[in-house]
Amino acid sequence: MNLNIGVIKGDGIGPEIVTEAMKVLDRVGEVFGHTCSYEQLLLGGASIDVHGVPLTDETIEKAKACDAVLMGSIGGDARTSPWYRLEPSKRPEAGLLKIRKALNLFANLRPAVLYKELKGACPLKEELTEGGFDLMIMRELTGGLYFGERKTVEKDGVLTAYDSLTYNETEIRRIAKRAFDIAGKRRGKVTSVDKANVLDSSRLWRKVVEEVAKDYPDVTLEHMLVDNCAMQLVKDPKQFDVILTENMFGDILSDEASMVTGSIGMLASASLNETKFGLYEPSGGSAPDIAGKGVANPIATILSAAMMLRFSFDLDREADAVERAVAEVLQAGYRTIDIMSEGKTQIGTSEMGDRIAEFIR
Ligand code: NAD
């Protein structure tokens, strides 16, 4: 199979970590008989330096022509970088919002995985996380409170602010389907999180999710109120497989879930649209404090590439091989500086990529 991949190396540590993910993808190609063709795309600061804007229409068109896009991270140090002297709509992050919108990426997937080898980084009690955990948060990304109408009015000298939370059936159905599809590829359970005891939008959410569930008899559906979910994530994270939720709840719960894994350098993410297309990137930023030093952890980007193999190309065996290689490298005791602990072997970005590639078979 030929994998037609757009590559946004981005800023800061982006080029270093993406190079390692490409190394691993090339190795997957060698072992499993695929070819990867890469189209380099500019976004963020790298695009501002060349074109004066963080994203051009030409880049959007080129991205659309790819099967999937692998991205590092974009942005710089806001205190020192000249990119932040530009007006807000011309800064690096504006490019990211624009590409997500242009590609209609409505589903954001963030896995939170605690590898048993890294259990020391987890802030929870050991008995709660024995053997590690592996859950996935699917957050609706283009609707809800963040995109609703808002206004602030003054009446009789008192300010009142309004934000509206709206969802329609179509928006709920399309993301619910993605969640059930993905749960079907995992352990077959969806926990739909809402606030149906209070909000109409949540009651509609629940109704539509239940309708979608009928088409997936092999996937178990449970509903959970968002306040309970926030508690359950720190009480018993092992109970979850796929958590499906709306934009604001997902924003908060995905940060909570990633915190319980303990390391930003390990967290992958994917943003998907209605087709097989997706944008795959690490959850962390461009880490300007360590850029160019060869110490950044490339694992989140490598795991994002594994998600790309699974969700955009349906190459489950290949994705499993990458995830297994990451676990094996950790078992063998190799660590980048951010996940280093006593008695382990510290290695740099490029060597971590080499080791993971070696373990692909
Ligand atoms: P950050 O995630 O870049 O860094 C936070 C801390 O985590 C730093 O100490 C950094 O060294 C460390 N870190 C992050 N990724 C790491 C990795 N792979 N290996 C080892 N350590 C790692 O967050 P920040 O400093 O708040 O943001 C820096 C820039 O990144 C800003 O311009 C911000 O806007 C941008 N940003 C971009 C994205 C994105 O591209 N999607 C996401 C978040 C932040």
Number of strands: 14
Beta-strand residue percentage: 15-25%
Q: What count of helical segments does DSSP give?
A: 12
End-to-end C-alpha gap: 17 Å
Assign an overall shape: globular
Oligomer designation:
single chain
Largest sheet: 10 strands, mixed
What CATH architecture label of the largest domain applies? 3-Layer(aba) Sandwich
CATH overall fold name of the largest domain: Isopropylmalate Dehydrogenase
Explained architecture:
The structure is a single chain. The protein is of the alpha/beta class. It folds into two domains: 1-112 and 267-361, Isopropylmalate Dehydrogenase (3-Layer(aba) Sandwich), CATH 3.40.718; 123-260, Isopropylmalate Dehydrogenase, CATH 3.40.718.10. Helix content is 40%, strand content 22%. It has twelve helices and 14 strands. The chain has helices at 14-32, 45-51, 57-64, 92-102, 126-129, 169-184, 200-213, 226-235, 247-261, 299-311, 316-331, 349-358; strands spanning 2-10, 35-41, 68-73, 107-114, 133-140, 150-155, 158-163, 189-194, 220-225, 242-245, 268-272, 278-282, 334-335, 345-346. The strands form three sheets. Strands 2-1-3-12-11-4-5-10-8-9 form a ten-stranded mixed beta sheet, with helices on both faces. Strand 1, helix 1 (14-32) and strand 2 (35-41) form a beta-alpha-beta unit. Helix 6 crosses helix 7, helix 8 runs parallel beside helix 9 (247-261) and helix 11 crosses helix 12 (349-358). The two termini are 17 Å apart. The mean pLDDT is 95. The structure holds nicotinamide-adenine-dinucleotide. Residues 13, 17, 73-76, 93, 96, 264-265, 281, 284-290, 296-297, 300, 338 line the site of nicotinamide-adenine-dinucleotide.
